[in-house]
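Bit of a strange request maybe. I'm writing a small parser for structure token strings and I need a real example to test against, not something I typed by hand. Could someone generate the tokens for this chain?
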Amino acid sequence: MKKFLIFLLVVICCAAAVFFVTRKQTPVTLSFDGQQYTLQYSVNNEDGWFNQYFLPEQDASNYRYMLTVRAYDNTDQEPQQIGSNILEKLLENYSDAKYSFFPWQNDSFCLYFILPTDDAFELHLLRFSKQMNGKPLEIQLVYRVFFDGDQQQAWQQMSETMDKDLSRWIPLMMTMPLPEVVRQARN
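Reply from user aminoacidic:
Good idea to test on real output. This should exercise your parser:
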């Protein structure tokens, strides 16, 4: 009987180890516009949890497309106020930024803007909604066009993408199911 209990304990420990190893290796993904993005980074900061998703072969250093999910767990502000705060900070730093901020259905709000960086133009498309717990949730798509030495050509490509894709991306972003926030550190 003692040998059986030891054997049973070993089997249970092995099964638990396999479960946790398998669980850790299971990728967390989000789908947007027919593409699968995989979670690569998750951190809990002063606002709450922040998750970054990238397409295959891309990461924070080389991405062309990125999705982020930010749970504002540590605030009592409404989604509209979070968006307004972001817009205010944007205009403090980029007074001539091209942007649009408008309401959507079900107390959601949309903000999009273009930012120049040292090596790219970035289009940021953000959705502000409420999580199931009533706290604000932000979902963001970032699309980057690298200069590769020619800012004018990069701007032309950004303009063409906005003309072609932005009118499709806005309703996709604003109507996609709210993703579950990963509340576990990953890097």
